[in-house]
Design brief:
The chain is of the alpha+beta class and about 130 residues long. It has two helices and four strands, in the order αββαββ.
């Protein structure tokens, strides 16, 4: 538990509401969603990133990825998903409490979604056009 961590503060409150959870982790809506229904899967224990989790916590996160997908299917019927974790500042992590993004994708939300997560480094993303 880190007093200054926004995810630790939420883990101790009832703010999680009726979102799916298990003994080691919980799901919450992203406060800055990139698409309708963007979810975060967050371990209850404060841990910096995926590699700081125990095997049981990693399994709990993956269980909730599936349950989060089911939750999204019931409410939004997305056409696809991006699943991602930023581990370390160089990878773009801004909150030092591990969290997994489950981002629903919808046909037409981007003109050309090919490459998906490869766009984190735009100049290396497009491998198919021969540029």
């Amino acid at each position: 538990m880190e007093k200054s961590c926004p995810f630790c503060a939420i883990a101790e409150t009832s703010e999680r509401g009726s979102m799916p959870s298990n003994a080691l982790a919980h799901i919450r809506l992203d406060g800055f969603p990139v698409s309708k229904g963007h979810l975060l899967i967050v371990p209850n224990r404060h841990a910096a990133d995926w590699f700081d989790l125990t095997e049981a916590e990693q399994q709990a996160i993956m269980e909730l990825v599936e349950r989060g997908k089911q939750w999204l299917e019931e409410r939004y019927q997305p056409d696809g998903y991006n699943i991602g974790m930023n581990c370390g500042a160089a990878a773009g992590q801004t909150v030092a409490h591990m969290h997994c993004h489950l981002i629903p994708r919808y046909a037409g939300d981007q003109p050309d979604p090919r490459g998906g997560v490869r766009w984190v480094i735009p100049e290396n993303a497009d491998y198919w056009s021969g540029r």
